[in-house]
Amino acid sequence: MMAARVLFVDDEENILNGIKRQLRKQYEITTALSGAEALDAIRVGEEFAVIVSDMRMPEMDGVEFLHRARELSPNSVRLMLTGNADQQTAIDAVNRGAVFRFMNKPCPVTLLVESMEAALEQYRLVKSEQELLEGTVNGSIKLLTDILSMVAPETFGKLTELRELAREIARAMRLISTWDIEMAAMLSKIAYVTLPPQTLARVRAGKALDQAEQLVIARLPETSSNLLANIPRLEQVSRIILYQRKNFDGSGFPQDMLAGEEIPLESRILKVLHELSVQEDNGLSTATALKQMGRQPGRYDPKVLQTVGWFLMATEEEEALLPPIHVKVAGLRPGVVLINPVETVEGHTLITAGQKLTETMLQRLVNYHHVHRVREPIKIAMPAEA
């Protein structure tokens, strides 16, 4: 087993040298003579299990350093060495640096090792819980998307495209992380799995719905949100989905006081992308649809609408395609464009026409074909650049 990585920070070099001599056989020790030097070590290397800092250091004290270290490496367990353990120092260290344990200088080696071992046990606990949580979340997401792909394959195909577009728009709007909006895009219509088969068939065919069905459809964001709310790590995804139809002026569902930039940015992005997709399905060009949406003040976030317009207009040029050909499933490749929909031998649509096959879509199609069979040949076109 590799030795645990530990970072010691102190402006007195002789103290650091003494610590390295005493503990180098037990831990992989890195030292730094200042907070700034220590932050650089955190940025460039592998994660430290434990970070131990002196309190009194010039330029950046231990509380400030541990506060910044927490932002850079939240899993690392933080300890503080101090010769002046006053009450205010303790309060600041706990509140800003989330310090796990204090040690007074001079610190006996036995106490230092005892504190280190307790910190390492805490680190292992945090990491194991994190791995368990990530496994649970990933498994839950895969299960939900697999169910949706079977119940509503056309919807699933569109959501795959929506996820990619939502990620690019989020990046253009400088969202630090795109994970939440990507998951919200993929799961934004997960409530379709709760619809009665006859209602789902009418929705997919664009047919008129009765009043009861319209009410069910109107509450789909709430249903989707509720399905996800109790899954660990998906709380924010659930909230994004809940507000994905909320108007920028605060009207619409859900009926609460949130309006404008109080509505999650990810929800405002999804609202524009979802409703733009509906307009395009009705036969409008992207440019025309965006113009019409821009004439509805209060409905959309103007900044989001503008960003979506800029992004799509920049990529709107039609990709040059080679003449269509017919291939079997085995002849499909990622990147080809479907000229006709992919259907089962019974005539059920699996992937709608006009879509560019992704690796994920192709793998699902191949797996389906092995069991249920897909109607062949399939009419496709290759991008000219390929």
Task: For the structure shown, list the relevant keywords.
386 residues; Rossmann fold; Hypothetical protein af1432; Molybdopterin biosynthesis moea protein, domain 2; 3 domains; 15 helices
End-to-end gap: 48 Å
CATH class designation of the largest domain: Mainly Alpha
Bulk shape: elongated
User: How many strands, what sense, and barrel or not for the largest sheet?
Assistant: 5 strands, parallel
Secondary structure tally, helices:
15
Number of domains: 3
Strands across the major sheet, in which order? 2-1-3-4-5
At the fold tier of CATH, the topology name of the largest domain is: Hypothetical protein af1432
CATH superfamily of the largest domain: Hypothetical protein af1432
Protein structure class: alpha/beta
Q: Could you report the average pLDDT, rounded to the nearest whole number?
A: 84
Low-confidence stretches: none
The gyration radius over C-alpha positions equals: 28 Å
